[in-house]
């Protein structure tokens, strides 16, 4: 079981609850590579019937065919979704256009009441899923701090954008979860700190998926002809090909594991999705 509940995350939960009534739509930002594990189950309960748009960020790093599967999955749940790259200007335009479509009734009601104010949106998501980067792209400024470590945003902040007023919230993780798979997926995408899990364990989990779903990418990246071997031997083979040798000529499996995980995170392994809809 993985368990944490820092004070700022409890505060974030209250902040979301308190501000929902003053926003028109909620953007739930998740990682397109792990849509299941990067969705905080608390969000469904918190947001309830509020208009929502799920943004699958880092879609440029994930498998486009699997992205479409997730779009269909969320559509069946009655939730609109969009595959985005928060650094891409075309994604920003698509978000704006879909927001107008989803909020058309709200806009009409405001016009009938003579309200000219912009739409108000709230953005929620787990740490390190790309919220601050997206906000900066939307606002065309450096309004939100960014970083590649969890928990950069510490407090709520209203961001003015050319499209709508956006309420940023700190990343919120759930109090605890017993599913080891979720912890591994979050660690692989750097949503939680690497130190919480063993690097070799992360690499083994990643290699298991790659062998099954993306064998060609695995062989191509590490110039390996045969991957039909057990995971430890495969890890050692990759270490040998990458020159990860320690004193005495032994293969440094820890260093090799870090390389494999980083290759996945940066897209050097290719476009990979670690989760598919049930």
Automatic annotation (TrEMBL):
Residues 12-175 form the CP-type G domain. GO terms for molecular function: GTP binding; GTPase activity; RNA binding. GO terms for biological process: translation. It is found in: Cytoplasm. The keyword Cell membrane does not apply. GTP binds at residues 57-60, 85-86, 128-133, 171. InterPro entries: G_CP_dom, GTP-bd, GTP-bd_ortho_bundle_sf, GTP-bd_ribosome_bgen, GTPase_MTG1, P-loop_NTPase. The keyword Nucleotide-binding applies. It comes from the Bacteria. Keywords: Cytoplasm, GTP-binding, Hydrolase, Nucleotide-binding, RNA-binding. One of its GO terms (cellular component) is cytoplasm. Required for a late step of 50S ribosomal subunit assembly. Has GTPase activity. Belongs to the TRAFAC class YlqF/YawG GTPase family. MTG1 subfamily. This is Ribosome biogenesis GTPase A. It comes from Thermoanaerobacterium thermosaccharolyticum (strain ATCC 7956 / DSM 571 / NCIMB 9385 / NCA 3814 / NCTC 13789 / WDCM 00135 / 2032).
């Amino acid at each position: 079981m993985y368990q944490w509940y820092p004070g700022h995350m409890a505060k974030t939960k209250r902040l979301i609850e308190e501000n929902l009534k003053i926003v028109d739509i909620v953007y739930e930002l998740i990682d397109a590579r792990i849509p299941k594990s990067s969705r905080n189950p608390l969000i469904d309960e918190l947001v309830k019937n509020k208009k929502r748009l799920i943004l699958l960020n880092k879609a440029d790093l994930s498998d486009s065919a699997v992205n479409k599967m997730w779009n269909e999955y969320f559509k069946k749940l009655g939730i609109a979704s969009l595959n985005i790259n928060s650094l891409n200007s075309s994604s920003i335009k698509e978000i704006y256009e879909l927001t107008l479509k989803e909020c058309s009734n709200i806009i009409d009601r405001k016009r009938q009441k003579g309200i000219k104010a912009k739409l108000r949106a709230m953005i929620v998501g787990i740490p390190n899923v790309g919220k601050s980067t997206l906000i900066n792209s939307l606002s065309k400024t450096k309004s939100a701090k960014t970083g590649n470590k969890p928990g950069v945003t510490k407090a709520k902040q209203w961001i003015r954008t050319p499209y709508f007023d956006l309420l940023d919230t700190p990343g919120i993780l759930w109090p605890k979860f017993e599913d080891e798979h979720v912890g591994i997926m979050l660690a692989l995408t750097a949503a939680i700190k690497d130190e919480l899990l063993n690097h070799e364990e992360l690499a083994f989990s990643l290699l298991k998926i790659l062998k099954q779903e993306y064998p060609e990418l695995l062989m191509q990246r590490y110039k390996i002809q045969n991957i039909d071997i057990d995971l430890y031997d495969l890890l050692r083979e990759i270490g040998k090909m990458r020159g990860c040798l320690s004193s005495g000529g032994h293969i440094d499996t820890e260093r090799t594991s870090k390389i494999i995980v980083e290759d996945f995170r940066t897209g050097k392994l290719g476009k990979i999705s670690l989760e598919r809809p049930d």
